[in-house]
Amino acid sequence: MATDPQGSIVRRMVLAPRASWDRLRNLTTSSPARFAVLVFVSLILVFTALLSLPAASANGRRLPLADALFTAVSTICVTGLSTVDIATTFSAFGKVVIFIGVNIGGMGVLTLASILGLVISKRLGLRAKLIAASDSNPLRTHGGPVNEGQTVRLGEVGQLLRTVALSTLLIEGLVALALYPSLILAGIRPIDALWEAPFYAAMAFTNTGFTPNPGGLVPFADDYFLLTVLMIGVFLGSIGFPVIYALRKQLWHVRKWPLHTKLTIITTVLLFFAGAAAFLTLEYNNPETLGSMNAWDTTFQAFFLSAMTRSGGFSVVDIGELYGSSLIVGCMLMFVGGGSASTAGGIKVTTLAVLALAVFSEAKGRPSVQAFGRRIPSDVQRVALSVVAWGATIVALSTIVISQISQEPVSDVLFDVISAFGTVGLSTGLTAELSDPAVYVMALTIFMGRIGTVTLAAAVAATSRSQLYSLPVERPIVG
């Protein structure tokens, strides 16, 4: 029988891309969490290559690999930490790349993965919808089996994803319009302000904190309108898309807000005022920070610092000049971060709220954890504990390694590591002085902080399964 080797080669060439495409489609439906990691790694590599181009550098020379990689990680993970001065190091092309990168990264790990998975597989599979709902659906209250009411709302995932994109464009557009007059009044040329206003808006809403002009926010230290607009942008980005989605539907019906929305708003506001009170108390007599200001300036800057340590990343005062006690307060706020499925980082405010409610319920001797007439299931509490343990482990290991490499004071290392983990962007000045090995460790910390806790929570929720039997009970001694 005659053979057709040429035809076989052609068939293999046609079938090979199809097989690769099918494997990618299977990955989007079988393991969206791993697909999300793959997406972010791919984006980081692409933006590293873009930022390494001579055209991206202000001096026309190729940026060192460590600096390009770190900036790409900080951009995609919307962190704001940098080993170089963004304003003077990058050209207009480089800043456009960073602007695009923070908006892509700000859409979130699982949200972005769901959108790309939808494009590839033409539809979201049930498993992908469950994971998208676990991170984004404000009405989902537990992992594992989904009750009838939540199953119906899985059809809203597509609408929620559209809300993410529209919210990003709308909020950033409004913030940019509000910032534009202030930038002109501050002496920025109108043509330059047309670019800097959207840049600042994107950095505020995505909680990144990069600044396009030399000196950062120092030239605007007395412009309370501009700083207030930035705080509003940071707040809207940090509360999370599920909260924005819920408020859009039921803004004035507080009783109808989902439990997630109530916990996020209440905890965010409490931390905002508590952080401001702490900074005001600790720094009012520090001549290098708030001590040289009048009462009004001191109070306003304390609130601004409290808002930025939650994940905003902008700063007016020199973080390196804060007292050690204030650095500890900043570490605590940065570790908590913002809301779930938001542009903020950290362990998330709802995680803190669930653990606080669990402690309160245990102290009261209640058999279950309750809030606003709702019972919080035990698997949510386990996820919260897992997220905190995972975050503390990342911070501890990174602090030990970077301290050993740099031999810098552990207080400065700890602050910058938590800033990296919480994707905040504030720095004592240490990050810019790190050697290349320490820079790579810090970049890995940013990456794990941005996607680690989210994918861990999604994986725990998605793999929860019912057990038809129970083992004998035995109580170990605790405490």
What number is the mean pLDDT? 82
Task: Estimate what percentage of residues fall within beta strands.
Answer: under 5%
Strand tally: 2
Q: In total, how many domains does the architecture comprise?
A: 1
The helicity comes to 55-70%
Given helix and strand content, the structural type is mainly alpha
Count of alpha and pi helical runs: 19
The general outline is globular
Distance from first to last alpha carbon: 80 Å
Rounded to an integer in angstroms, the radius of gyration calculated over CA atoms is: 23 Å
* SSE pattern, N- to C-terminal: HHHHHHHHHHHHHHHHEEHHH
Largest sheet: 2 strands, antiparallel
- Low-confidence runs of at least 5 consecutive residues: 120-124, 130-155
How do the strands line up in the largest sheet?
1-2
What can you see in these coordinates?
- A two-stranded antiparallel ribbon has the order 1-2.
- It starts with a helix and ends in a 16-residue tail after the last helix.
- Helix 2 (32-52) packs antiparallel against helix 19, helix 13 (259-283) packs antiparallel against helix 15 and helix 16 (349-364) crosses helix 17.
- It is built from 19 helices and 2 strands.
- The longest helix has 29 residues, at 157-185.
- Strand 1 (369-371) and strand 2 (374-376) form a beta hairpin.
- The chain has one domain (20-462).
- Helices cover 67% and strands 1% of the residues.
Brief digest:
Its main location: membrane. By secondary structure, this protein is an all-alpha fold. The protein has helices spanning 5-30, 32-52, 65-76, 86-89, 92-106, 109-121, 126-136, 148-153, 157-185, 190-205, 224-238, 241-250, 259-283, 295-312, 324-336, 349-364, 378-406, 410-421, 436-463; strands at residues 369-371, 374-376.
